[in-house]
Amino acid sequence: MPFSHHSHSGQFCSHASGILEDIVLEAIRKGFKIYGLSEHMPRYAPTELYPEEIEANLSVADLYAKFESFLTEARRLQEKYRSQITLLVGTEIEYITPSYKSHIKAFLAKHTIDYVVGSLHHVNGIPIDFSKELYTQALASISHDGNASLPVLFERYFNEQYEMLVAVRPDVVAHFDLIRIFEPVKGMNVTKSVWQSMVRNADFVIGYGGLFELNSRAWKKGLVDAYPQRDILKYIISRGGKLTLSDDSHGPADVGMYYDRLYNYLEIMEITTLYHLDYDECSKVVVKELRDARDHQFWVGVKNW
């Protein structure tokens, strides 16, 4: 039973491609039984717009309108393809400043959303996954006396992530160690202090029962492992953390991207149990367990994609 909890479409996300229905159709073609639609929640200030949004003359109001349209379309597709696939309608939240705690609360109270994907895409208010240039800006913004320190950037990321986790308690924690996107290595950046902050965050998620996604998009970015990388993943596994799968697709061509590698990652990390979200008999979204995950018939089809 293939599943993913994290996806985007060019119809509603400026840095993705394709229309939402084509993503759903590709998920059906590849045999997915559960697929999460999780467009970004709107950001709240013009200064938080991404470069391609500014270039397209989009406003904060446009982002809100897009998200409203996404919810309408996602529910339409959910009903249209109900007999072929279970579509979960969620959102990937943003947490750029502490004020987002109240923004998110009001946002979720206003909209009917099945589940929340919790992410951190910024450090010190600057995007860290949009481009290497902005990553470097984020690094420079926390430098002291002109000396930029990657371990300090890593620790700042995990501290801000902790604020998001405590405020939101997301159902699915996305790309746990995204900060490694342009600096993947490695021990030199994971000082004792950084490691303690990573462990603290992981323990918090484990404590409230959140799912950690194994995010295959990391391979598209050139990393050795899926997010989370294997050092912190080993810890999560040792503590009984619940793992799920996400392709973090940004268009139809990304659906199920690198799921063959995910199988190998499960094998290397000796992961035999996965978890996923699904509806129960009362149409409530709940966590379900998939045992013997590596032996499931699903993987036979994946290798033929």
UniProtKB/TrEMBL annotation:
InterPro entries: Histidinol_P_phosphatase_HisJ, PHP_dom, Pol/histidinol_Pase-like. Its EC number is 3.1.3.15. GO terms for cellular component: cytoplasm. It is an enzyme of class 3 (hydrolase). One of its GO terms (biological process) is L-histidine biosynthetic process. Pfam families: PHP. It catalyses: L-histidinol phosphate + H2O = L-histidinol + phosphate. GO terms for molecular function: histidinol-phosphatase activity. Keywords: Amino-acid biosynthesis, Histidine biosynthesis, Hydrolase. Pathway: Amino-acid biosynthesis; L-histidine biosynthesis; L-histidine from 5-phospho-alpha-D-ribose 1-diphosphate: step 8/9. Belongs to the PHP hydrolase family. HisK subfamily. This is Histidinol-phosphatase.
